[in-house]
Specification:
This protein is an alpha/beta fold. It has helices spanning 42-48, 75-87, 101-112, 131-145, 152-162, 168-178, 200-213, 234-244, 260-263, 265-278; strands at residues 2-6, 12-17, 27-31, 54-58, 94-99, 117-123, 179-181, 187-189, 221-226, 248-253. The chain is built from 10 helices and 10 strands. It is globular.
Length: 280
């Protein structure tokens, strides 16, 4: 089920539900990273199995969610929007899953409303990352958003180049879900170019400052790292799970880079399922 969900005043998010609410068990909310959308979780959710109510969401400026004139795409704003969604539903306990930018968003949510959060899954959160890596990622996103593509197949080929570890079927599924056809007939990835308007050095500094705040988290938290990630080193992931988080756990997903849910959705789904069932 797809639906527009009310969030903070003057804003709406696009939420997708895989199952009914269910008041007896924590619900799962999946939050994507920069330049993606709820669809980026499809391959993982297809493999997750029954774990209760599952929701994924398009953040403002992404997917089917509205764009914001003048931007307004900060982590704080995203967290506020999502908190309005979860506090407005009958579910009282949530497990939040976030990738990269989404990991920062759900961390802010858990710090703001700890009584509602049963657990967190931080999928390849950017920590101790080089400015060059973020700059390269922004360049790739601007390139695929710019002039667009003549066909879905053309974007699929570019996506396969950028995600060499991903299975062809996953790349095909993602390519078909990610695009919107413009008035000029060309296909473009569905995100507002304004979401990319930030200084990489500033964002890295904010991410590092966030780490100390994470010491206040008291819920079980699973840190998931892609074995080949350029955004989360083995040492940074171990430090986060073992020394920063009060109830941290760490899993490394083989055959995966930063985009774990695209590169190896099967192993990611199994890790999330184990975590969810351990909290039952």
């Amino acid at each position: 089920m797809d639906a527009d969900a009310p969030s903070s005043p003057g804003s709406r998010l696009h939420a997708r539900a895989r199952s009914g609410d269910g008041d007896d068990h924590p619900a799962l909310l999946f939050v994507h990273g920069l330049g993606d959308g709820a669809h980026v979780w499809d391959a993982t959710l297809d493999r997750l199995g029954p774990v209760g109510a599952v929701f994924s969401v398009d953040l403002p400026g992404h997917g089917d969610a509205p764009w914001r004139p003048g931007g307004g795409y900060s982590i704080e704003t995203h967290a506020s929007d999502l908190l309005a969604i979860i506090t407005g539903r009958p579910v009282t306990r949530w497990i939040l899953v976030g990738h990269s930018l989404g990991a920062s968003v759900i961390t802010r949510m858990a710090l703001a409303e700890p009584s509602r959060i049963a657990g967190l899954v931080l999928v390849d959160p950017a920590r101790q990352v080089a400015v060059e890596a973020v700059t390269r990622m922004l360049g790739d996103l601007r390139a695929i958003r710019g002039a667009g593509f003549q066909s879905v197949q053309a974007y699929e080929a570019e996506l396969a180049r950028q995600r060499p570890l991903a299975e062809p079927a996953t790349v095909r599924q993602l390519a078909r879900a990610a695009l919107r056809r413009g008035e000029d007939g060309r296909f473009r990835v569905r995100f507002d170019p304004a979401v990319l308007d930030f200084d990489p050095a500033d964002e890295i500094a904010l991410a590092e400052a966030e780490v100390e705040g994470m010491r206040a988290l008291r819920c079980p938290t699973l840190v998931i790292r892609g074995a080949g990630s350029a955004f989360l080193s083995r040492g940074a992931a171990t430090h986060l799970a073992a020394e920063i988080l009060a109830e941290g756990r760490l899993e490394t997903i083989p055959r995966a880079g930063h985009a774990v849910m695209v590169d190896n959705p099967q192993a990611l789904a199994e890790a999330i399922r184990r975590f969810v069932l351990s909290l039952a």
